[in-house]
C-alpha cells in the first residue's frame, strides 16, 4: 500500500518526459501511473517516486489493434 505522506508531486510533470518519445506524460491518479497516451505505455509511481525504468512500464491497451495499412501511401 502506498504511503500517503509520499504522494506524487504534480510539479514533477513540468520536468518529466517519456524516455522513448521525449513528450510530456499525463498523471493518472486512479492507477498511480504516468501515462504516454500516444505510445500507450504507463510508468508506475511507487511511494511518490516515478519509476522511469523502461522494464517497469506496462502497455495500457494491449489488445488494441492498429490498422497501419490504411495510413500508408
UniProtKB/TrEMBL annotation:
It holds the Pfam family Trm112p. It comes from the Eukaryota. InterPro entries: Trm112-like (IPR005651). Belongs to the PREY family. This is Protein preY, mitochondrial. It comes from Canis lupus familiaris.
